[in-house]
Amino acid sequence: MTEELRTSVVGSHARPSWFVAGIAAAERGEFGPADLEEMLDDAVDLALRDQEEAGIDIVSDGEMRRAGFFTAEFFRRVTGVRALPPARRLGAGAHDQQHRYEVLEPIAAPDGLGVVAEYRYAATRTKRPLKVTLPGPYTLSGRLDSGLGHVYAERNAAAEAFVPILRAELEGLLAAGANFIQIDEPSPAIHPDAPADFSALFNAAVEPIVGRARLGAHLCFGNYLGRPLARRTYRPVLDAMLGFRVDELVLEFANREMAEVAILGEIAAAGRHVGAGVIDVKNSYLETAHDVAERIDAVLAAGVPAAGLTLVPDCGFSQTPRAATRAKLRAMVAGRDLVLGRTEREDR
User: Fold this and answer.
1) Dihedral class, residue 177 (left if φ above 0, else alpha if ψ from -120 to 50, else beta)
2) Which of 223, 216, 220 is nearest to 188 (CA)?
3) CATH class assigned to 6-81+103-144+153-347
4) How many whole angstroms separate alpha carbon 319 and alpha carbon 76?
5) Per-residue pLDDT tens for 19-48?
6) Is this model's pTM higher than 0.90 or not?
7) Where are the domains of the chain?
8) Residue 275 and residue 5: Cα distance in Å, rounded?
9) Closest alpha carbon to 166 in 193, 132, 196
10) HEC readout, the chain
């Protein structure tokens, strides 16, 4: 792994057609537990292989065991809630078609959220540095659609109820050997006016492992069906982001044609490393190495030191076809190599 201009992913990997068909079959009851486990193992292996073949430095398990749009799988492990039908089933795809839950009693996760087991398997399948991802407390509480007035006064109280659940999961990951953990909490970007202290919630969840593992926070603008969910600007939530006790902020820029890239210099000056999105996962256009190199140049020109920069896609690839995903990963690495090669020539 190069020490400068590292490449990584945000989390999820593309779902191949056989995997999508298999999940549908499993949900119809056509798989036994061993069948499902074998398929999920194979999917993780595929995600890792695609990343390694592309040359990615820091890989993930592709979140392949999280069959729903990522919070769905976690709620299979949460007690005190009941699944509700989507608010809308027909018409153009949008965020109001996602899963939602009613709160029946105080929530708990007696057997954890399953992320520790995900890590343990993936760690046996790659020799590259491995990043583990999981959602933050406010993101998880966003799936609670009713029953808040009965059990929790409002969403903030429900988010606080997820804090001990996440703390236990993070401590379990640390004990299992994980040393790079990323929390996906796009809430400040998506809910800039919400009456919530996002950094306090986030910091309460990660407090047991601060300083004991590399911590990142991924804050994007939404990607369900490739559609953003927010006004796409980080400026109003910069202070909230800098309040997160993390080593690295992972942010979305390629889909916005590198708008607000200057903000990265402020983040670097505040002592944070940066995961800069230089691949647009919401666009079917396949970037060239030169496209990516131009985006990297813009990030470096903003004042981000190469040693404090990781190059990533804007978001996960779960909403992107696999062929496009593989091409985009290769382009990201090739663009990085162009920049490194040019820098080496200039230094001679």
Assistant:
1) left
2) 220
3) alpha beta
4) 21
5) 999 999 998 999 999 999 999 999 999 999
6) yes
7) 6-81+103-144+153-347
8) 10
9) 132
10) CCCCCEEECCCCCCCCHHHHHHHHHHHCCCCCHHHHHHHHHHHHHHHHHHHHHHCCCEECCCCCCCCCCCHHHHHCCCEEEEEECCCCCCCCCCHHHCCEEEEEEEEECCCCCCHHHHHHHHHCCCCCCECEEEECHHHHHCCEEECHHHHCCCHHHHHHHHHHHHHHHHHHHHHHCCCEEEEECCHHHHCCCCCCCHHHHHHHHHHHHECCEEEEEEECCCCECCECCCCCCCHHHHHHHHCCCCCEEEECCHHHCCCCCCHHHHHHHCCCEEEEEEECCCCCCCCCHHHHHHHHHHHHHCCCCHHHEEEEECCCCCCCCHHHHHHHHHHHHHHHHHHHHHHHHHHC
Instruction: Write out pLDDT tens, residues 268-321.
Output: 999 999 999 999 999 999 999 999 999 999 999 999 999 999 999 999 999 999
| Sign of the torsion angle spanned by Cα atoms 279, 92, 228, 112 | negative
**271 token code pair:** 């002592």
Residue with tokens 């990522």: 70
Provide CB contacts within 8 A for 208, sequence distance 6+: 167, 170, 171, 174
